Amino acid sequence: MLEDKSFNYNVNKVLERRFFSRRSTVVAKDLIGKILVRRLSGEVYLRGIIVETEAYGGLKDPASHAYGGMTKRNEAMFGEAGFSYVYFTYGFHHCLNVVTGKIGDAQAVLLRALEPIQGLDIMRKFRRDKCSDLNLTNGPGKICEALNIDRSLNKVDVAKSASSIFLEQASNDEVGRIDERRKIVSSTRIGITVGLEKRWRFYDPSSIYVSHRSKLNLPRKRIR
DNA sequence: TAAAAGATCCGCT
DNA sequence: GCGGATCTTTTAA
Q: Which nucleotides of strand B come closer than 7 angstroms to any CB of the protein?
């Protein structure tokens, strides 16, 4: 059965274009505590609180896909802020980014982990019932599998609630649980071999939904 | 043709 | 719980 809250959901305040047209490091940090929404056909919504992101710095960042200039794959990164950049990697997985900065900057923020809050039954199905709820969306590839995101959702305008992917503020009853853990921490980025001097990974250290928790020596149970 | 912004399974504690 | 091998294909050289 589908969860009731997947339907009849009133969209919160959607993040505007100007939110995204800042530096990727700033946007990455500000996205912690915001909500990623995936709208499926039939007005069904899957939602999760963003608890982990990574900033990528464009042409001058050796860890970025945009390093070395525009290609067929990274084209979206060179476009307008507030659009999605979805890529396929390691033969299996998709990853979701949001383009930031000015046109041509090729900056982006990778969404790495969510706390799932709405539509969990559907997310479990997309994940083929192979994991616990804790592991539904605690990694960039897992987010895309749980929310059924692939390259067909590249270059989607995530600053519009009519889109199949968009970003919004938390609602009033959700604000409380987010403000409590508003302490954001940075670290080096994960899965890269260059650019390791930058601490451009941002996360909420109190969230149990952050990826690679054991390696970070973080508590595995919720702190309250 | 080799490396990649990853996740899972397997064998060990 | 933990590390490492393995899965697989797009991308760019």
A: 3-9
Is residue A222 assigned to a domain? Answer: no
pLDDT bin (cut points 50, 70, 90) of residue A117 is very high
Which residues in 157-216 of chain A line strand B, with CB less than 7 A from it?
189-193, 211
Q: Encode pLDDT of A142-195 as tens digits.
A: 999 999 999 999 999 999 999 999 999 998 888 666 555 568 999 999 999 899
Tell me if A223 is assigned to some domain: no
Tell me what the pLDDT averaged over chain A comes to: 89
In which domain, by residue range, is A27 found? 4-216
How many structural domains compose chain A?
1
User: Chain C bases under 7 Å from protein CB?
Assistant: 1-3, 7-13
For the entire predicted model, the pTM comes to 0.92
Between CA A86 and C1' B13 the distance (Å) reads 39
Domain-embedded: residue A221 = no
**Residue A203 CB: number of other CB atoms within 10 A?**
27
Give buried/exposed letters for A177-191 (b at 16+ CB in 10 A, else e): ebeebeebbbeebbe
pLDDT mean over A10-38: 97
Q: Indicate which CATH number applies to the domain containing A118.
A: 3.10.300.10
Residue A187, in any domain of the structure: yes
Q: What is the DSSP string of A37-51?
A: EEEETTTEEEEEEEE
A215 CB inside 7 Å of strand C = yes
Q: What span, in angstroms and rounded, lies between the C-alpha atoms of A2 and A103?
A: 40
